[in-house]
Amino acid sequence: MRYDHAVFKPLGDLYLGVEFGDELALRLNFRVIALNTALSANPISGVAETIPTNRSLGIVYDPFTISRGRLEARLREIEEQMGEVEEVPSRHVTIPIWYNDPWSDECAKAHGAPNNLKFLAEINKMTVEEVVKTHSGTDWWVSAVGFTPACYQAMPLGSTRALTAPKYQRPRKWTPERILCIAGQLTSFYPVRSPGGYQLLGRTPIDLYDPLQRNPAFNDGPVLPRVGDRHTYVPIEEATYWEIRRQVEAGTYAYQIREEMFRIPPDRR
Description:
This protein is an alpha+beta fold. The protein contains six helices and twelve strands. The protein folds into two domains: about 1-85, Gyrase A, domain 2 (2-Layer Sandwich), CATH 3.30.1360; about 90-269, Cyclophilin-like (Cyclophilin, Beta Barrel), CATH 2.40.100.10. The strands form two sheets. Strands 5, 6, 7, 8, 9, 10, 11 and 12 form an eight-stranded mixed beta sheet that branches. It has a four-stranded antiparallel beta sheet with strand order 1-2-4-3, with helices on one face. β3 (about 45-50) and β4 form a beta hairpin. The longest helix is centred in the N-terminal third of the chain and has 16 residues, at about 25-40. The relative contact order is 0.16. The mean pLDDT is about 95.
């Protein structure tokens, strides 16, 4: 459900949440991005940081510079000026994936789980090849970034048959870095070795988190994914994986990123 007006919720003494609805929906994420963009273009004195997520914008502010009441009033003015949001800035990012990679299979076995691609094929009544084709056959909209650096959530944009996936009944103790994963209908990512419960899809040879910032793609910071990005996942084989990985480690890989504007599809409004 979309709220008629943004709802403000205090998140402690220094944080304010601005919620636009209570569901995971592209149109709500557009409003989050629009408000975040407006605040970047016209900063409010006292606002230190903004954190866009699926349906809300987190705001970190200094209460000695601006009171919560004044901040809410200013945000309300900006929201009313936004009107209907039909278009937002969006980067198109191409990410190569070795689906059903050996690291994911080893991880599943170590935690007493079946091969995740075969499991997804079974519950979605597909073949493994159809799972890969379905997942890579549409673009994915990044609606939130966080939890660990470069971890994100992305929803499918296309009208192709959607995959669905339950989480592990017991979370894994570890997951290899650079693993792409899915739970429900959301694609996510393990940028570093860490626990988790999403079903494992495959591994990318490129870095989405690089604290060394070895590639020009990381000139603005060590985290590549941004809310509002669109991902295209391209299936690759083992030889291509290692070729790209060598380029990444040498700092010569050419990341495929296009800066664009994106209009919300009519069927998602």
